[in-house]
Each structure stands twice: as C-alpha cells, then as structure tokens.
C-alpha cells in the first residue's frame, strides 16, 4: 500500500482551527482511499517563537525536508508585533520557501456556482471560472541585487530594487506551466512587460523556446502584464494557466482571488524542482488567507481553503487525482446544499461552525 508522510504546521490564529478539519479529511482518506497517511504536527510562527525563540527550528526544517508534503496553516498576529525582525512569525514561512527551494507558486481561482453572487463581478463573468495563476516565487525584483537605500552627496536618498531572471529560472517555471496546462485545458498565457523591461524580453524568449522544443502540443499566448490584468477582470474565463514573474504574480493572483468571492475559499501550492533520482518535488500547501486574529478562537473560521489545499497535495504531490476530485466535489456539494460558514453567509442566513463545515465535507465525501 502506498504511504506518505505529511508534516502539519498549523501555526497561529485560525491556523490550528482549520488544520483540525484537514486532519478530519486525512483520517477519512487514510481509512477509505487505499493510501496510508502518516502525519506529524509541529510548531511554526508565533507559536514556535513562544516556545523556542525562533519562528521555525532546525529540527522542524529537517522534518520538512524529509516529508512528502508540508501542510501549512497560517502565521502571525498582533501578539508578536514587537518581536525582532529575524524571528518574526513570517520568517518561518520564508525559511521553508527558501530552504525547500519552492520556486513555483500555484494559485487556482475557482468560482463555485453556489457562490457566484459573492464575486465583485457579474455572475456570468465568473460562474464556472477555473483558472490557475502560476507565480515565480524565488526570483525577480523581490530578491535581485543590488537592493538598497543609499544617501546621495546632496542628502537625497536613492532606493534600488533589481529585477533579475536567468534562463534557468524562467525555463523551470515555464515547464511547470506547460505540465499543468497539459493536465487541464492545454493553454498557457505568459505575462511580462517586454516593451519596457529587459527581463521581460528574456522571459518571452525563454518561454517561447521551451514551448517550441518540449511542449508544442500546448497552446501558448503572450500578453503584456498590464493588458493581462485588464483581461483578467474583463473576461477571466479566456484563461487556463497564467504564468508570470514574482511581482506581477503577486498582484495578479490577488486580483484573481477577488474574482471568486471569499478569502476563506482559496488554496495554494508551492512546488520545488523534481528530485533527479525520484522525480518527486518538495511541496508546501497552504490557504491564501492569513491567521485572521480577529476571528481566532471563535470556531467560526472557514476551513475550505485549508481543505482545498490538501486537495491540491493529493493532486500534485501524490498523483491522487480522483481523491482530489472527491474533495473538490464534496466542497461544491456542501456549498450547493446551502451550508455556509459566517464569512459566506448572507445577512440573516444561518451559519455553521468551522467543525460543522469540516464534518459536512467529510460526510459529502
Ligand atoms: P496576513 O498578513 O497573514 O495575510 P491579514 O490579517 O492580512 O493576514 P487574513 O488573516 O488573511 O489577512 O484575513 C483578513 C480577514 O479576512 C480576516 O480578518 C478575517 O476576517 C477574514 N478571513 C480570512 N480568512 C478567513 C477564513 N478562513 N474564514 C473566515 N474569515 C476569514
Ligand atoms: Mg494579508
């Protein structure tokens, strides 16, 4: 029987509350899917800082490196606002991303029919939407050197951030985009600003070359990132997989998030390079939302983003597409039946607790 190790890092705020519902789904899968899941739970973020004085320990990092996937809740909150910068809760997630070399960030934007009216756009524009934004996560202007603020001779200051991309970095993210598209609707839209940025020129050339050499069967289209942003809110259903750099991806994925309604619905995955020996990628799965300190401890957080993140782990780390479809289908069914956590409920409509939503999803599975 296939067996996988999951490292669960619930974190802070609502993290532990939504993780408890993922554990419910994992227990169900363990009992019913013919695949065995071994889980280990550890501290990250503020809760790790309180015990160990750091946002993630070396020990936890070792476990993460060895795990088949890391399932991450959320970190941070006002309690830790004053802790030193190097050990702030967010440092735990940044270290995981860096040490596991998670260069590919996948953010699906799916609009469940039952929630189409919660979008900021018209129902017809978003109903049935199912697109995937693929953001390069470890390069670009967020990391390029030089990165500094210098004081000039005349007393003025000068701030510099540098956009850097290498052929290798663009090739590996392009491959992920084409692979993902092959398993979906077979279309990739690459977005950059080649009209004003040298990195955009190289991005365009490298994506085109990878397409020609390795994925000619996939439809490829190029779009300037500003026009892409406009198209994303005009008619988002024209897209399948959008691949773009770290900065544009940060912005475009937040725009895509708002197409679908609630922050409590959106999962994400961050993938590393395939191991040359086994072909397995390091991977971390987490909801897009944060620790939501305002509702923490009340038992009302929406666990769907967290549970859908486990669904992505089934699809992308364990090759369990049918089980992933089962999870996604259960979420859609539960929503269609009218079950809502407080964030999704209309004024005056009854809402269920975090736990009741988790139970309803497992029951639907
Ligand atoms: P971060 O800095 O970690 O992104 P944040 O405070 O900017 O955190 P979130 O924690 O994502 O943002 O939450 C923003 C608001 O959205 C919360 O205050 C909360 O009311 C709501 N929210 C976020 N996630 C959920 C959820 N799973 N269920 C219900 N409401 C949520
Ligand atoms: Mg935020």
Bound molecules: adenosine-5'-triphosphate, magnesium ion
Summed up, the helix count is 12
Radius of gyration: 21 Å
Number of strands: 12
Main β-sheet, spatial strand arrangement: 2-1-3-12-11-4-5-10-8-9
CATH topology of the largest domain: Isopropylmalate Dehydrogenase
| Terminus-to-terminus distance | 21 Å
Strand content: 15-25%
Key words describing this protein structure:
single chain, 365 residues, alpha/beta, Isopropylmalate Dehydrogenase, Rossmann fold, 2 domains, two-stranded antiparallel sheet, 12 helices, 22% strand, globular, binds adenosine-5'-triphosphate, binds magnesium ion, 3-isopropylmalate dehydrogenase activity, leucine biosynthesis, magnesium ion binding, Isopropylmalate_DH
How would you describe what is shown here?
By secondary structure, the chain is an alpha/beta fold. It has two domains: 213 residues, Isopropylmalate Dehydrogenase (3-Layer(aba) Sandwich); 120 residues, Rossmann fold (3-Layer(aba) Sandwich), CATH 3.40.50. The chain has twelve helices and twelve strands. Helix 1 crosses helix 10 and helix 10 packs antiparallel against helix 11. The longest helix has 18 residues. It is globular. The two termini are 21 Å apart. The mean pLDDT is 96. Adenosine-5'-triphosphate binds next to loops.
